[in-house]
């Protein structure tokens, strides 16, 4: 797999891990069930992985989205540092056709009507910033791990764990490398068995919101992509 393909996989995994439930509707627009656009962010990111650079109008047509919806989503990812946008002033298609006809006749004079046809329009182009995405994804994961650690410290979560297989003790919640993202539990670094609390207290289990197995597998794949990229 090429490095470009690895980055594309990273984008697709990050889209589903971080932006699956994101709605890019305006703050003043009601998010009704009929107009809810959650999931659009994933669709747009997936589409951008298949293109180097694309005119936003063309991308909106390909995805059968309103141009305003597409612009709002592309602006969102520009703010998230996932995408770059470029705004170019170009002639309309009618002007391009007219110029070709003008060149063919050899007539270099422009009249009033031709000046109207030469009116310039602004078009926006969008592409993914893969290098920046790699940095941002690593930062998001770092921030989430820090929040996990802070939450556990604030709630006086049990610090000591014991391995039921090899009886290894004194595992600390500060050792975040013991977290297995597949089942969101602490595992023994010696035999990989799931650790249990040393005392009868119940450990706080807020390392997830009960996400399904698909989301857990997404986390594991995302971490693997970061290691390989």
TrEMBL record:
Keywords: Transcription, Transcription regulation. It comes from Amborella trichopoda. This is HTH TFE/IIEalpha-type domain-containing protein. GO terms for biological process: transcription initiation at RNA polymerase II promoter. InterPro entries: TFE, TFIIE/TFIIEa_HTH, TFIIE_asu, TFIIEa/SarR/Rpc3_HTH_dom, Znf_RING/FYVE/PHD. One of its GO terms (cellular component) is transcription factor TFIIE complex. Belongs to the TFIIE alpha subunit family. SUPFAM superfamilies: Zinc beta-ribbon.
């Amino acid at each position: 797999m090429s490095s470009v393909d690895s980055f594309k996989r990273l984008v697709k995994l990050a889209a589903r891990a971080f932006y699956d439930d994101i709605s890019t509707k305006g703050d003043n627009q009601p998010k009704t069930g009929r107009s809810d656009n959650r999931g659009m962010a994933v669709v747009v990111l997936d589409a951008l992985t298949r293109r180097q650079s694309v005119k936003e109008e063309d991308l909106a047509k390909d995805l059968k989205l309103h141009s305003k919806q597409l612009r709002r989503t592309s602006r969102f990812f520009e703010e998230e540092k996932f995408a770059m946008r470029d705004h170019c002033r170009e002639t309309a298609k009618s002007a391009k056709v007219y110029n070709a006809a003008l060149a063919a006749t050899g007539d270099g004079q422009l009249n009033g009507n031709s000046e109207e046809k030469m009116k310039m329009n602004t078009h926006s182009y969008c592409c993914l910033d893969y290098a920046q995405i790699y940095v941002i994804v690593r930062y998001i994961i770092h921030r989430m791990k820090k929040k996990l650690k802070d939450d556990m410290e604030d709630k006086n979560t049990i610090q000591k764990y014991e391995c039921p297989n090899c009886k290894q003790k004194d595992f600390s919640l500060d050792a975040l490398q013991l977290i297995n993202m597949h089942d969101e539990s602490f595992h023994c670094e010696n035999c990989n068995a799931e650790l249990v609390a040393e005392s009868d207290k119940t450990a706080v289990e807020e390392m997830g919101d009960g996400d399904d197995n698909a989301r857990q597998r997404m986390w594991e794949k995302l971490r693997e992509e970061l290691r390989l990229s």
